[in-house]
Amino acid sequence: MLMKSTQREEKAATQTNDTPAEVVLDCHAEQIFYGDFLAVRDSKVPIQKNKITGFIGPSGCGKSTVLKSINRMNDLVRTFRFEGKVQFHGIDIYDKKVDPVSVRRNIGMVFQQPNPFSMSIYENVAFGLRLNRFRGNMDEKVEKALRGAALWDEVKNKLKNNGLSLSGGQQQRLCIARAIATEPQVLLMDEPCSALDPIATRQVEELMIQLKQRFTVAIVTHNMQQAQRVADQTAFFAVDISQGGRTGYLVEMGPTSELFNNPKEQLTKDYLHGEFS
Amino acid sequence: MAHPTTTLPQEAASLSQPPSKMDIIFNKSFRSLTYAFTWAMVLLLAAIVIKIGIKAIPAIERHGLAFLTTTTWDVNSQHFGILPEIWGTLYSSLLALILGGFFGITIAIFLTQDFLPHRVEVVLKSIIELLAAIPSVVYGLWGIFVLIPLIRPLADFLHTHLGWLPWFSTSLSGPGMFPAALVLSIMILPTIAAISQDAFRAIPHKTKEAAFGMGTTRWEAILKVMLPAASGGIFGALVLGLGRALGETMALAMLVGNSNQISLSVFAPANTLASLLALNFPEAAEYEVSVLMYAACILLLITLLVNIAGTAIIAMTGSGAKK
Ligand SMILES: Nc1ncnc2c1ncn2[C@@H]1O[C@H](COP(=O)(O)OP(=O)(O)O)[C@@H](O)[C@H]1O
Ligand SMILES: [Mg+2]
Questions:
Q1: pTM of the model
Q2: CA A171 to CA A184: how far, in whole Å?
Q3: Cα separations (Å) of A8 from A22, A55, B95, B214?
Q4: B18 lies within 8 A of chain A by CB
Q5: ipTM of this predicted complex?
Q6: Domains and CATH numbers, chain A
Q7: Domains and CATH numbers, chain B
Q8: Which of A5, A55, A273, B74 has its CA 20 to 30 A from that of A224?
C-alpha cells in the first residue's frame, strides 16, 4: 500500500504538465483514533506547494479528520489520538517539542460553517494580526486580506459593522480574509461551500484559484464537480467496513483529471460512476 | 383486496372523532384556570406595591425627598432620614458584586472551558448551586462565629499597614461592612456562576473552533473570544446578582453592625435598608410604620430597576446570540 502510493506520487509529479511541485506538507496518517475507534488508517497525503489538493469521498470516511490533523485542530477533541507523521518544513508537527498553537498560526483553517467572531469586520480580519503582535500598518494589512478574499469592495464602507451582519457567502469570505491576513503558508478548508448558495460557492471557488498563487490550499469537498473545478491534486478516501469497524483510508491520490478520467482503483471507478450516473 | 378498503374508513372515522363535550369543557376550564392564576400573580404584586405605597403616604407627605438625603433616625424627635441605609445598601451590594462577580465568572470559566473532566464539572456545578439552598440566617451565624474571627488578622493587618487608605481607615470591631459584603458575595455567587456558565455554554462550538483555528492559546481564546461572546449573559448575571444582594436581609441584619453612619471604611459598621426594616418593624409605632413603608418603597424601587435592567439585558443578548 505504502509502496504503491509513493510510486504513484512520483508518477504524478512527472505527469503534471507544470514543474514538479515541492511538497510543503507531507501528511502520513498511520492511524487516527477517537478513543478506541479507529477512524482513519494508512493515508499518505503529500500536499504540494501553490497547488490545491482536494479531499473527496463518502461521508464519514475521515476527510475532515485527516484535514484537521494537519494543523492539530483535532487536539481540541479529548479522545483524539494521531499516530504517524506530518512533516512541515522537515519538522514533524506531532513532535512533543512542537507547540500546536504555532502550528495553527502557520497552517490556517476555514470551516464548514462560516464562523466570524461577533466583532466588527475590521476586527475579525485584524484578529490574527493582533494575536501575532503585528506592529505595522494594520489598515493596509486588513485591506490586503479583504481584497485577497474578494470581499473588499462589498465591505469597504462598513468595516465597523459586525461580521455576523454579512450574508453567508460574505461571512465565509470574511473567514478566508481572517485566515489569510497573517499569511499562513497553508490554508485548510473543510467543505467551505457546503453552507453557501451556488453563486457564493462560485465566488469562493474563483477565490481559491486566485489564492493558490500565494498559498497552498487543501480542501475537503463532497462535491465532485467542485473538486474537478478547483483541485490540482485529488485524494479519494473510502470507508473500510471489512473488519467490522468503519475505518476510513486513502484509496488513491493523483492529479485531478487523471483520478477522474482514469482511476486506478476499482473502488474509485465505482464511486465516481455512482456519483455521476 | 376488498377487505382493507372496507375496514379502513371505519378505522379512520374512529380516529377523526370530534372532541367530546367533556374534552371541550376540560380544555376550557383548564385554560381559564391558568389565566386566573397568572393574573392572580400580577394582582398580588400590584396589591403589595399599592398597599405599601398607601401606607407610606403620610411619611412621604411629611418628609418628602429630605427622607432620602438626611442621616438621622430618631424616633423620639421624629427625625427620619435613610441616607446611611441607602449608602450601606449600595456599598455592601457593590462590594459583594465585585467579589462575587470576580469569583463567579472565574468559576464559570473554570467549569465550562475544558479545564476539568466532564464529571468533575457536573459535581462542582451542583455543589455551587447548593450554596443557594443555604438559609440566609445560617450564613449570618456562620459569618458571626466563623468568618469574623477568621478575617480579623487580615483586617488588622490592612488597617495597621494601609490605614491611610480610606477603605481601611478604621479597625474591625466585629460586625461591619466587610464581613457583610463577604457573606453577601458568597450568597450571590451561585446566581452569577450559574448564569455565566449558561452564557459560556451558549457560545456555539464553531466560535471556539474559529479561535483555536486562528492559533490562540487557551487563555487568548478565553479572554479575546469567549469572554466577549459571553459578555451579554455575564452582564445580566451581574445585574441579577446585584438585585439579590440589594434585597438580602437576614444575613446582613446579623453582620452589618446596624450603625447609622456613612463611612468608606469597609471595617466600619454600617446599615442597609433591608436590615433597617427588619429590625425596626417589631417595635414600630403607627407613624413609624409609615416611615418604614416609605423606606420599603425605596428599596423596592431600587431592586425593581436593577432586575428589570438585568432581565432586559439577558433577553436582548439571548436573541442576539441566536442570530
Ligand atoms: N469528535 C469526534 N469524536 C468521535 N468520533 C468522531 C469525531 N469526529 C468524527 N468522528 C468519527 O470519525 C469518522 C470520520 O469522520 P469525519 O472525519 O468527520 O468524516 P468526513 O469528514 O469524511 O465526513 C466518522 O465515523 C465520525 O463518526
Ligand atoms: Mg467532514
A1: 0.79
A2: 20
A3: 16, 17, 70, 34
A4: no
A5: 0.85
A6: 2-12+21-272 (3.40.50.300)
A7: 52-322 (1.10.3720.10)
A8: A5
